[in-house]
Predict the 3D structure of the following.
Amino acid sequence: MTPGEIKRLYFIIRVFLSYGLDELIPKVKLTLPLRIGRFGFFWIKNQHKGKELGERLRLALQELGPVWIKFGQMLSTRRDLFPPAIADQLSLLQDKVASFDGKLARRYIEESLGGPLEQWFDDFDEKALASASIAQVHTAKLKENGKEVVLKVIRPDILPVIKADVKLMYRIANWVPLLPDGRRLRPKEVVREYEKTLIDELNLLRESANAIQLRRNFENSSMLYVPEVYADYCRENVMVMERIYGIPVSDIAALKAQGTNMKILAERGVKVFFTQVFRDSFFHADMHPGNIFVSYEHPEDPLYIGIGLWYCWFTE
């Protein structure tokens, strides 16, 4: 293990300890050696005792960066594994991660488009509308027609951070087979797939193309609406698409309050998925609640709206 990897591993462990996440370790005979190691090597106490466990876990993953935030997003969809207090906090990682400076976002977008934003957009809001592990979005209006849009921009200097953490994950994967049943977990294959997923997310031109294809597949559909992508303004690190308004699919109370026909909504959710897989062999594979909304219009005949990170794969 290189000095850089050791330094990163030390930082990761230190962050987890500073948020008191060692309490997640089962209380076994190793408890005393772990405590000795904690103070002998890290000399750090839980600095967030006033916060609940779920919030501490979310903040720790957020501080560690995109690889860990994405991991938290994945965990947030497994409410069968976690109590609501933890799952609710992890769900905030889907679109409520701390954003980076809006002025910096403006500069990156202008560098990618090759000119000042005012050349193409009005009313650009430097305050992020939503922010996740890889990118954040800002609202604006197209100068040419006044349509409301969102501009998605990749976080700055994110690739070196991802590569460093993935390299460390490969190192750890080499140790997993030494554990009982470790080989059965196929750790290297898991890390390799995770790495591919993360790297693919960094190319918004691919996401734009996939969103355009998915929109074409569900044109005039009564089940799913896919926002329009404005390809002329899309670059590898910038994506411009129609702004939508809807209720997050996870907000059951809001859906019921507006009189949504939940039976039809559930049926259409299943139909949308199977239509993508079996009719089109092309599907949205990141359908967590932060990416799926329900239109405010005609709640008695509900319409899904799909946005977000598009991992669309052709099946064999």
